[in-house]
Amino acid sequence: MCVTDGSAAGGVLPPEATEKFNTWGGWPAMRGLSRWYEVEVICKGDADETGYFINISEIDQAVREQTLPYLQDMISGPGDPASAPIGEVVRGMINGLQPLLQEAVAEVRLHLTPMLSMGIESENMDKVTIRHEYEFSAAHRLHCDSLSDEANREVFGKCNNPEGHGHNYVVQVAVAMPIDPMGDVAHVEELDELVDTVVIKPFDHKHLNKDTEEFAALNPTVENITKMVWEKLTGKVDDLGSMPGAELVEVKVWETQKTSCVYRGE
Ligand SMILES: Nc1nc2c(c(=O)[nH]1)N=C([C@H](O)[C@H](O)COP(=O)(O)OP(=O)(O)OP(=O)(O)O)CN2
Ligand SMILES: [Zn+2]
């Protein structure tokens, strides 16, 4: 679900407009310069005899009635939105939805950009999970030294091409951290610097099999890359200055738009 300043602020939507068009693209369509947010509401429950555990229109309605006006108030309030205590804002979103959706609401994620979100789970409202995406481009060859050349060709097909082939890998790192007494959370820039140092720079524009120690003897499949990213980050995230108590909770790597792998540790 998308919120734009226009629709939430009112005034852009003509008063006589009762019908909605293109709710996928956002209604009413944005005019002028936009701010972009996305609200993701994750619900959990057991389906009853109807096959539903909740009608999605109830979720839509709750978000439209409660979350979007709340978010609009936060954005247009007296403070600078860039200094908003983001932990407190997302906690306010989930608090507002709970009376309407009861125990169905499991998590609310506020996407601040298409690559950065802040999520709070209803079972642990003292923590925010930051998800941030990064990118590196690399070549690789899928090849297993323990298999014969013929078996490698059979298992990996075109991906066993001796000269390799390339991908633009997208890496999403999820870090859970406590919300501080001011309602704020750590600076994402510190996480960015860590990921850049230990993951992106070592892998970007490299041939993973030939140019990196990590994959000299390890087949650089998306599974192994995901686990390697986890191993490189785990234990370092909690050392970041502005992130006491931070914990790596998930790494997701997309090799192509259609192929990804998630690792959450042992
Ligand atoms: N379990 C895994 N299977 C595959 C992996 C992997 O890492 N783990 N990797 C590959 C290749 O790296 C390959 O480059 C992926 O591209 P492709 O086969 O072209 O797959 P796409 O989904 O992008 O496109 P198709 O149109 O379906 O070919 C393969 N398998
Ligand atoms: Zn590949």
Please render the helix and strand layout as text.
Layout: E1 2-3, H1 5-9, E2 37-43, H2 56-76, H3 86-101, E3 105-113, E4 116-121, E5 124-140, H4 149-156, E6 165-178, H5 188-203, E7 206-207, H6 208-211, H7 222-233, E8 247-254, E9 260-263
Parallel strand pairs: 5-7
Antiparallel strand pairs: 1-2, 2-3, 3-4, 4-5, 5-6, 6-8, 8-9
Bound molecules: ligand LPXRUNBV and zinc ion.
Zinc ion binds next to strand 6.
Give structural notes.
The protein has about 270 residues and is an alpha+beta fold. It has two domains: about 1-120, Tetrahydropterin Synthase, Chain A; about 125-265, 2-Layer Sandwich (Tetrahydropterin Synthase, Chain A), CATH 3.30.479.10. The chain has helices at about 5-10, 55-75, 85-100, 150-155, 190-205, 210, 220-235, and strands spanning about 1-5, 35-45, 105-115, 115-120, 125-140, 165-180, 205, 245-255, 260-265. Strands 1, 2, 3, 4, 5, 6, 7, 8 and 9 form a nine-stranded mixed β-sheet that branches. Helix 2 runs antiparallel to helix 3 (about 85-100). The longest helix has 21 residues, at about 55-75. Its cofactor is Zn(2+). Keywords: Lyase, Metal-binding, Zinc.
Question: What's the quick description here?
Answer:
It is an enzyme of class 4 (lyase). This protein is of the alpha+beta class and 266 residues long.
